């Protein structure tokens, strides 16, 4: 056991977070995200039974966001014409604002471009999140 590490952060996840360098990206994916096909070149950690928001909050306690990028956090945009509600985005904003004071730290990326960017991620965390468009990408900064 270590002090100050959130219980939800496994030793394997902590290892990958430590290995990541400046500008490396991680994706916390909802339950519908094609984690294994998109993440062929990424490290993948399954965190079944957990939602994106609880994982996001725990990671941001340890993970510096990139201060050189105006939007170090990205969410997947809705497909044009999709009218599904996305209340999880408000939760994302609330959590990110606890760790980053920029009002515009969160940007959005068109769905298929999000997949393309996720293919370059160092780490993808697969969750049991049921919220649609509940995917979020973080870009690591420096300490």
TrEMBL record:
GO terms for molecular function: D-ribose pyranase activity; fucose binding; L-fucose mutarotase activity. This is Fucose isomerase. It comes from Lachnoanaerobaculum gingivalis. The keyword Cytoplasm does not apply. It comes from the Bacteria. It holds the Pfam family RbsD_FucU. InterPro entries: RbsD-like_sf, RbsD/FucU_mutarotase, RbsD_FucU. Keywords: Isomerase. GO terms for biological process: fucose metabolic process. Gene3D superfamilies: RbsD-like domain. It catalyses: alpha-L-fucose = beta-L-fucose; beta-D-ribopyranose = beta-D-ribofuranose. The keyword Isomerase applies.
């Amino acid at each position: 056991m270590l002090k100050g590490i959130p219980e939800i952060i496994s030793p394997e996840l902590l290892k990958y977070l430590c290995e990541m360098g400046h500008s490396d990206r991680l994706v916390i994916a909802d339950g519908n995200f094609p984690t294994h096909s998109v993440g062929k070149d990424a490290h993948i950690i399954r965190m079944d039974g957990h939602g994106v928001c609880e994982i996001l909050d725990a990671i941001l306690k340890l993970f510096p966001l990139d201060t050189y990028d105006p939007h170090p956090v990205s969410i997947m945009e809705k497909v044009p014409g999709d009218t599904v509600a996305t209340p999880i985005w408000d939760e994302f904003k609330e959590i990110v604002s606890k760790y980053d004071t920029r009002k515009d730290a969160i940007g959005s990326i068109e769905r298929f471009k999000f997949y393309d960017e996720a293919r370059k991620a160092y780490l993808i965390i697969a969750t049991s999140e049921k919220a649609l468009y509940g995917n979020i990408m973080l870009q690591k900064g420096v300490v």
